[in-house]
Amino acid sequence: MNFSIERLIGNTPLVESKVLNTNPNVKLLFKLEGQNPGGSVKDRAAYNMITAALERGEITKDTKLIEATSGNTGIALAMIAAMYKLDLEIVMPENATKERVQTMRAYGATVILTPTEVGIEGARDFAEAKVKNEGYFMFNQFGNPDNWEAHYKTTGPEIWRDTEGKVTHFVSSMGTTGTIMGTSTYLKEQSSNVQIVGVQPTDESSIPGIRKWPQEYLPKIFDATKVDQILEVSEADARVMAKRLAEEEGIFSGMSSGGATVAALRLCEKLKEGIVVSIICDRGDRYLSSDLFD
């Protein structure tokens, strides 16, 4: 038998909303990605990006690896890198929660913090300069097909299987867009009628894990034709919903999951019938040092 931690990645549960969804003709299912061993949906992409690069011979145990992240991808990469004894540096904005930084370092990764004011874009620029000038290898989750293909191979098939092919709508926050791209590609192959709904923050909002990218930083893996509708949510609404998920549904998650749930509930209110699957992308324990649950 295979007893490695890798086999715990994926096959996350779907749980039905019992309180927040009040439309009796629509079933809202939350896919609990915090159940992955690294605590987020990014375990899927990190595992696929590292193993695919190793299989292609692009990296070895002697390669200096680097990646820019707002948090969850860094934790996932650090976990997988530890399993494969790889040397990894993570670059992230200095306003990242303490739990994120400590978790990456616990896995053995080196963490470099860039100024808050330059955001994740500045962290990406810093990592790219290291690749250009110092010979690092960057996974580049924003432009790496191995990111979205992880969800084509796992997340999409799981949702189709666990809803017995009855899913009508899929809702996902959009950051790197890997989750929504891969899941959309698979679900649309099964049925072109499945509607794919992306979630972005409103212009004035800052929601960790969800971005409305400037054109020059738009993820290269993003294909707008694979998303049927984009809903915008405010930071205030996402914060309130993260708390409500914990208090009313027993689902402890971060702000981006709150934002996705806001969008999913708006969708459910308008539907006459359907089965909506919404991604709960991580666990709330990595936000405890922030003011999210104050």
From TrEMBL:
<dbReference type="Pfam" id="PF00291">
    <property type="entry name" value="PALP"/>
</dbReference>
<keyword id="KW-0663">Pyridoxal phosphate</keyword>
<keyword id="KW-0808">Transferase</keyword>
<dbReference type="GO" id="GO:0004124">
    <property type="term" value="F:cysteine synthase activity"/>
</dbReference>
<keyword id="KW-0198">Cysteine biosynthesis</keyword>
<dbReference type="InterPro" id="IPR005858">
    <property type="entry name" value="CysM"/>
</dbReference>
<dbReference type="InterPro" id="IPR005856">
    <property type="entry name" value="Cys_synth"/>
</dbReference>
<dbReference type="InterPro" id="IPR001216">
    <property type="entry name" value="P-phosphate_BS"/>
</dbReference>
<dbReference type="InterPro" id="IPR036052">
    <property type="entry name" value="TrpB-like_PALP_sf"/>
</dbReference>
<keyword id="KW-0028">Amino-acid biosynthesis</keyword>
<dbReference type="InterPro" id="IPR001926">
    <property type="entry name" value="TrpB-like_PALP"/>
</dbReference>
<comment type="pathway">
    <text>Amino-acid biosynthesis; L-cysteine biosynthesis; L-cysteine from L-serine: step 2/2.</text>
</comment>
<dbReference type="InterPro" id="IPR050214">
    <property type="entry name" value="Cys_Synth/Cystath_Beta-Synth"/>
</dbReference>
<comment type="similarity">
    <text>Belongs to the cysteine synthase/cystathionine beta-synthase family.</text>
</comment>
<feature type="domain" description="Tryptophan synthase beta chain-like PALP">
    <location>
        <begin position="6"/>
        <end position="282"/>
    </location>
</feature>
<protein>
    <recommendedName>
        <fullName>Cysteine synthase</fullName>
        <ecNumber>2.5.1.47</ecNumber>
    </recommendedName>
</protein>
